[in-house]
Amino acid sequence: MPNDLQLPFREVTALIRVGEGRFTGDVHPSWTIGGKPNGGYLLAMTAAAATAEIPHPHPIAANAHYVRSPEPGPVEIVAEVLRAGRSASQARARLLQDGHPCIEAVITASTLDPAAVPYWDEGAPTAGDVPFEACVPLPGRTPDGSVTVALMDQVDLRLEPASAGFTAGAPTGHGELRGWLALPGDGAFDPLSLLFAVDAFPPATFDVEFTGWVPTLELTVYVRALPAPGPVRVLQRAQLIDGQRVDEACFVWDRTGRLVAQGTQLAGIRLG
Amino acid sequence: MPNDLQLPFREVTALIRVGEGRFTGDVHPSWTIGGKPNGGYLLAMTAAAATAEIPHPHPIAANAHYVRSPEPGPVEIVAEVLRAGRSASQARARLLQDGHPCIEAVITASTLDPAAVPYWDEGAPTAGDVPFEACVPLPGRTPDGSVTVALMDQVDLRLEPASAGFTAGAPTGHGELRGWLALPGDGAFDPLSLLFAVDAFPPATFDVEFTGWVPTLELTVYVRALPAPGPVRVLQRAQLIDGQRVDEACFVWDRTGRLVAQGTQLAGIRLG
Hints:
Chain A is mostly beta strands. Helices cover 9% and strands 40% of the residues of chain A.
């Protein structure tokens, strides 16, 4: 779905370095859900600042704690190198708005080897085989019509038909969403945009029971390999809803079926 | 296995507050593997400092990036409050030795409700039913005899017989270890010691192929409920070995079968 208003991921995460470890950026109003910026998008922007300060280009382990949600608009990011090592480096970074901490992130970065091949993957779920073309685009509104998901005009997010029941009020109860994700203009994924990919899907709890906002408290992403160009296949699944919180695990495969990123998140939910 | 040299978890994680957000502690030489302190133990110590500074007592999401391994002995921890909120608070904390950053942690804390009950858990693995008494204590040395695991004289870590094959050179290939963990003196687990529980088991990759040290690069823990007294049941499983790194997922149930903590970690491994 080409769209004149679509902006490349590189553009909506662009930073200006204004001093040692200090950056400014602009949170785009279209990368939002109900007006709130997507959490993976904010982590990618924060990690971009962190990796700019260290000798290794690829975040391989990144976490964000969501302290408060920034509004779309100008933000500041402050990054601090913890160690610049031989095979890996670490940095922490904080995204602030009007002086208030919004995202607290820590990044371990390395250089992913394009020649690496998986050695053993029997503990990971299987990718499935429903092709991109057989999947259904996620509507730009939540099932109850209450929330506009502006982000869906930017990315091409498609659900496997078996996962799309919740959009018609018929969740399966399995708490599992499978589908595909493409960046605007078919932009190729890279380790930074994979940080977004693990938080792009709707809450997998929608496949259990539809609720209002499921705000992410913490997001952890491991980037495991350099992705092939093209859309990525995503599995987002809920594991446990307890004490009005849910954890979700996410798996991201590239077009060739290589597992390239994994994530977990803890979020608030009004159930139980 | 009572042991005169066993020290309570509370004692080996004890901190002295020496200023606002500043603490000193002592990494105990017995909470080590081949002389290196256990990573979950160090996260628990670091998180203890963070939670001491905020109004919420229970870490619900905690991560550590392992910048460098401290030696047993004195350490300093510096904690900084990010936000003290109504239902949750956030802090970051750094463990240093001789002025060098060793652990970089961020904590989201809350107050876990003892009356909460799980609402939905169909996405989590099942706990299994092999009782504590039917499990076999993990030896205090690695299978090749090369590494002394002093930690095994402190905690009572038992593997289900089906998971213990690797100790006799016969891994199953599934990359999955199941068993039980008890603290010294049958001490009750709490949210802080659960941060240790998710990193107490041997690398689940030992059930794929035995290797040397599998150093944790990053550890994330979600504490989901207050545990009942007694030992906890643990499932540690590897998911993907690629590019000389492995991720492992961990699930911890209390004695009553309640899923009380979950973890993921990314570690280095000399395979592939």
